[in-house]
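One-letter codes give the sequence; the fold follows as tokens. An example follows:
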Amino acid sequence: MNSPLPTSHQALTVPEVMSALRMSRFKVYDLIRSKRLPSFTEGRLRRVPADAVATYMKNRLEEAA
């Protein structure tokens, strides 16, 4: 299966997460705010670990099953 996540990045920007999950900016920040999607900031930069996105998708699939 071809992954929508950039394979060369370990930390994704919010627009990259939006693209990978096909969600709006508001929804991605809502997931971050509710602690369902881990992230970190460096100065003003918000980054989401790529494995956190994969874990989020895996958990959602398990919940749906």
In short: Strands lie at 11-12, 40-42, 45-49. Residues 50-64 form the longest helix (15 residues). The chain has a mean pLDDT of 91.
